[in-house]
């Protein structure tokens, strides 16, 4: 989520800033190409090989490739990555809705997450807010339907989808696809996307002119006179930062699974913070101790406080 660590806490902050926050906080929750047909495992491997051969969107000499697109009414970010986790473990963790709250809550702006079963299927009730301790009465609630579209021993495809959001935003998605790779590794793709209308477009412009001014993404779009890369800013920068934060949450959750249960949460928080600090220029928002203390409090709260009813 793109709010600065310098976001004003005062309840008298200009309303336009709070409207911008509503859009940006919720927009960081999700996922994949609209209207895309279910791909095959080999298609994902082919896509990754093409990215690796060209070096398209590669981050910091790692096997992580990030891309983004912007159209008139939709934003999308996509990460392809090779991870050192066996596919069966990835499948066991990500094919179940309950495990996804352990992923989402690592994000700095996710204040609450609870999985529950409804008459129409699994649902994730998520509360998103600002980058500091915040009561649940002030968060924005989004309800995501969860579906394992493909769940086989050679291919996993899961989708989290919310039809609506604040300020005329719509069709929020997180789609994650994974296939086994050689040497006990897994190939993963996470795509994040949402649609928006006039009110959301205005809120985004307000954010970029104020709290988001000077923030960049990762894609190189030019070169400065001194030869340094110029990175994308604006809306695509917002999408790229959010996409990577959620991918790193997914990665950190998977890496923490070998830790004793009593230490898993602390381990996943440490892993997420360390991972984001590798890209501190774009992602740093608060200090480690503050982040960990805030998250431990939020996780304890979500275990004892029921989510609001639908509507």
Task: Tell me briefly what this model is.
The chain is α+β, with helices and mostly antiparallel strands and 311 residues long. It is 36% helix and 27% strand.
- Using only C-alpha atoms, the radius of gyration works out to 18 Å
> What string, H for helix and E for strand, traces the elements in order?
HHEEHHEEEEEEHEEHHHH
* Structural class category: alpha+beta
- Main beta sheet: strand number and arrangement? 8 strands, antiparallel
Spatial order of strands in the largest sheet: 1-2-8-7-6-5-4-3
Q: Gap between N and C termini, in Å?
A: 24 Å
Compute the number of strand runs: 10
Question: Please, could you describe this protein's structure?
Answer:
The protein is an alpha+beta fold. It is built from nine helices and ten strands. The strands form two sheets. It has an eight-stranded antiparallel sheet with strand order 1-2-8-7-6-5-4-3, with helices on both faces. Strands 9-10 form a two-stranded antiparallel sheet. Strand 1 and strand 2 form a beta hairpin. The chain is globular, with a radius of gyration of 18 Å. The N terminus is likely disordered.
Q: What secondary-structure arrangement, pairings included, does this model have?
A:
Layout: H1 15-27, H2 41-54, E1 64-70, E2 74-83, H3 87-94, H4 97-104, E3 110-118, E4 121-128, E5 140-152, E6 155-164, E7 170-180, E8 186-195, H5 198-209, E9 220-223, E10 229-231, H6 234-255, H7 264-277, H8 280-283, H9 288-304
Antiparallel strand pairs: 1-2, 2-8, 3-4, 4-5, 5-6, 6-7, 7-8, 9-10
Helix pairs in contact: 1-5, 6-7, 7-9
């Amino acid at each position: 989520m793109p709010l600065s660590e310098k976001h004003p806490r005062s309840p008298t902050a200009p309303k336009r800033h709070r409207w911008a926050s509503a859009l940006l906080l919720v927009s960081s929750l999700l996922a994949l190409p609209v209207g895309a047909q279910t791909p095959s495992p080999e298609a994902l491997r082919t896509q990754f090989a093409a990215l690796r051969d060209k070096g398209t969107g590669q981050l910091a000499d790692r096997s992580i490739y990030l891309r983004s697109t912007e159209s008139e009414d939709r934003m999308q970010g996509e990460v392809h990555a090779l991870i050192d986790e066996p596919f069966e473990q990835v499948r066991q963790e990500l094919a179940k809705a309950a495990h996804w709250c352990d992923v989402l809550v690592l994000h700095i702006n996710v204040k609450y997450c609870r999985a529950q079963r409804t008459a129409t299927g699994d649902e994730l009730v998520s509360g998103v807010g600002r980058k500091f301790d915040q009561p649940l009465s002030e968060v924005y609630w989004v309800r995501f339907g969860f579906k394992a579209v493909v769940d086989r021993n050679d291919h996993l495809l899961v989708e989290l989808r919310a039809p609506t959001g604040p300020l005329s935003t719509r069709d929020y998605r997180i789609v994650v696809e994974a296939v086994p790779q050689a040497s006990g590794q897994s190939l993963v793709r996470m795509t994040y996307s949402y649609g928006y209308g006039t009110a959301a477009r205005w809120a985004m412009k307000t954010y970029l002119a104020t709290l988001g001014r000077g923030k960049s993404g990762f894609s190189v779009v030019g070169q400065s006179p001194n030869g340094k890369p110029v990175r994308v800013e604006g809306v695509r920068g917002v999408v790229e930062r959010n996409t990577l934060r959620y991918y790193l949450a997914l990665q950190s959750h998977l890496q923490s699974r070998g830790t004793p249960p009593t230490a898993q949460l602390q381990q996943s928080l440490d892993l997420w913070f360390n991972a984001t600090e590798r890209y501190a220029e774009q992602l740093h928002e608060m200090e480690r101790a503050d982040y960990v203390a805030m998250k431990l409090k939020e996780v304890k709260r979500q275990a004892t406080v029921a989510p609001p009813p639908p509507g």
